[in-house]
Amino acid sequence: MPNCMRTWGLRAILQFLRSALSALHVLAAAAPATFKSRAALQLENLALRHQLGVLQRSGKGPRLTAADRPLWAWLSEIWADWRSTLVIVKPETVIAWHRKGFRLFWTRKIRHGQPGRPPVSKETRELIGRMSRENPLWGAPRIHGELLKLGIDVGETSVGKYMVRRRKPPSQTWRTFLENHVKTMVSVDFFTVPTIRFQILYVFLVLAHDRRRIVHFNVTAHPTAEWTAQQLREAFPFDQIPRYLLRDRDGIFGGGFRKDVKAMGIKEALSAPRSPWQRAYIERVIGTVRRECVDHVIVFNEASLYRHVKSFVGYYHESRTHLSLAKDAPEPRPVQVSQLGRNVAIPQVGGLHHRYERRAA
Q1: Within its chain, how far is the Cα of 45 from the centroid?
Q2: What is the value of pTM for the model shown?
Q3: Which residues are CB-neighbours of 204 under 8 A, at least 6 positions away?
Q4: pLDDT tens-digit profile of 261-276?
Q5: 17 Cβ neighbours under 8 A, 6+ residues apart
Q6: Residue 208 in 3-state DSSP?
């Protein structure tokens, strides 16, 4: 805007304010009871005089200082008709000044040792986060109730503030899912073993979760979806079909395999890509078979590998103790008292392992 136009605009505003102020004085002297109360007229007089003073002291445009803003914030608080006399700034600007002053007021009050809400201790914050992680289906009211039972007095809004934020809807963990369906779920998977001629053989395992039993296994050099589906039919008679089948996303489980599984009335549960920990039970069994059997033998062909695995499966079911089964075998072993005789060692898996029992002399 040219300087001449800006100067003309300021002069017009000054002239308007002077005219308004003169008219205000005339009206106040003529009929004060008819138009406005004395207090309203004094406030309006103050507002107009302040704006006039700002324009007179400014150069090219009105410049409000930090001392001018509290006045208008105060006027907007006590005078309902303050917008009618405001010329040099917008009403929204005055409201923003008031809100800023409110924030500064509480900041100053908190810094002087007068906080409004008591702080939540670090221990309580960590407990709230742990509860929300361990119980993804709980909301703030449920966690707040548990805290009250522990004698921790904290507001429900504070509980919601320190809960773990999730991008997806709450869901149970894989561990919870496995434990809830441990008696009705089986896992299937392959692992590979090289032969003496560097041929790759595939071992297919079917594991029941309830007692960590290897329900079925077989060996092949050329696995297909049809062969895999046939192994599943051989593993489960019609009266022993599980409810859930947990597997990975290997391409060997093709359309034919999925169709046969659905026909058997089994619901598939697929683990996430590159997440073997979601199939922890069968991955642990595969590791056990490797570490305690096939890593210590030389495999000649399919028949040789089948014999080794079959020998180990017998030892695995009848003799080997498991931490997850309270150090018992999948097929429970009786406890033998010392009166039965001395200890004897029974070689198993070709002498790789032994079973110890008491025998009479």
Answers
A1: 60
A2: 0.53
A3: 188, 189, 190, 216, 217, 218, 219, 220, 223, 228, 231
A4: 888 888 998 988 888 8
A5: 48, 51, 52, 55, 87
A6: strand
Mean pLDDT of 167-177: 65
Q: Which residues share a beta bridge with 267?
A: 244
Q: Which helix (H) or strand (E) holds 245?
A: strand 244-247
Both tokens assigned to 82? 């303050």
- Of 190, 189, 187, which Cα lies nearest the Cα of 177? 187
pLDDT digits (tens, 9 = 90+) for 233-262: 898 876 678 888 999 998 888 888 898 888
Longest dimension (CA), the chain: 132
Cβ neighbours of 238 (radius 10 Å): 8
Positive/negative CA dihedral, 156, 160, 162, 163: positive
The pLDDT confidence band at residue 68, using thresholds 50, 70 and 90, is: low
**DSSP per residue over 106-124, as a string?**
HHHHHHTT--SSPPPPHHH
